[in-house]
Specification:
This protein has 262 residues and is of the alpha+beta class. It folds into 2 domains: 139 residues, Fructose-1,6-Bisphosphatase, subunit A, domain 1 (Fructose-1,6-Bisphosphatase, Chain A, domain 1, 2-Layer Sandwich); 112 residues, D-Maltodextrin-Binding Protein, domain 2 (3-Layer(aba) Sandwich), CATH 3.40.190.80. The strands form 3 sheets. Strands 3-4-5-6-7-8-9 form a 7-stranded mixed beta sheet, sandwiched between helices. A hairpin with a 2-residue loop joins strand 1 and strand 2. Helix 4 packs antiparallel against helix 7. It is globular, with a radius of gyration of 17 Å.
């Protein structure tokens, strides 16, 4: 399988879907919002975007299964499985606040081998394939070479449900606010990971996510020379339950989280 060629086909598809989302943004009717749960919103734009992606990806790799956020197709894992978030950052989209993105990953044997994150507003397409490097609009990207916590900019997110982790999570954020250049919450995990990959963020952490939020982004970070772990520096991150992605400041960023997270 030629992963580079496959990746380029996915990029072309996400460009089509990006144009659809951008067009719908201009005249979106807020009355068409649906609620999947508290602060968990969905619109016809999410669903139509996912339908477009599924149709296109079936043409690209007919034998593959699918894991999708909006369940427009039955979940089925096969030797190759597409993992799709058609509009990561729906709440931002509904309020016309950048940023939001399309995220498509291809998984086999428990690892991601192709990843594309297309940020809609800036029309920035981040992509990678296994052992091929990571790129932004045709230019290879790398994680930030900074190694110091005090010179870092950190990305994070707030899960829909913080469960019993509210206090400790905000203690970690408070520590980063005090000891870094700052903490940013963009509202799209896929974009956060892409920003780590291209060196805009030194690190990103969040918990209680889903696989479609992070599948493409974690490959971007790895192929850009970064590190992806769970909060204990282990390998249990693909589910999204705990994700830490960093450039070269990994050790100092991870230490802050490990000290407080149990």
């Amino acid at each position: 399988m030629n992963l580079e060629h496959l990746c380029l086909e996915v990029i072309a598809l996400t460009k089509e879907v990006r144009n659809f989302i951008k067009h719908e943004l201009e005249n979106f009717d807020l009355s068409k919002i649906e609620h999947k749960g508290k602060n968990d919103l969905v619109s016809y734009v999410d669903k139509q975007s996912e339908t477009m992606l599924v149709k296109g990806l079936k043409d690209i790799l007919p034998e593959a299964g699918f894991i999708t956020e909006e369940a427009t197709i039955n979940r089925e894992e096969k030797t190759y499985t597409w993992i799709i978030d058609p509009l990561d950052g729906t709440t931002n989209f509904l309020h016309k606040v950048p940023s939001f993105s399309i995220s498509v990953g291809l998984m086999t044997e428990g690892r991601i081998i192709v990843g594309v994150v297309h940020e809609v507003n800036l029309n920035e397409c981040f992509y990678a394939w296994e052992e091929g490097g990571a790129y932004l609009n045709g230019t290879q990207i790398f994680v930030n070479t900074n190694t110091k916590l005090e010179e870092s900019l950190i990305g994070t997110g707030f899960p829909y449900s913080l469960l019993d982790k509210t206090d400790v999570y905000f203690e970690i954020i408070k520590e980063f606010v005090k000891k870094t250049h700052g903490v940013r919450r963009l509202g799209s995990a896929a974009v956060d990971l892409a920003y780590v990959a291209c060196g805009r963020f030194d690190g990103y952490f969040e918990f209680n996510l889903k696989i479609w939020d992070i599948a493409a982004g974690i490959l971007l970070v790895k192929e850009a020379g970064g590190t992806v772990t769970d909060f204990k520096e282990g390998n249990d991150y693909l589910s999204g339950k705990e994700v830490l992605a960093c450039g070269k400041a990994f050790e100092e960023i991870s230490a802050v989280i490990k000290q407080r997270w149990s």
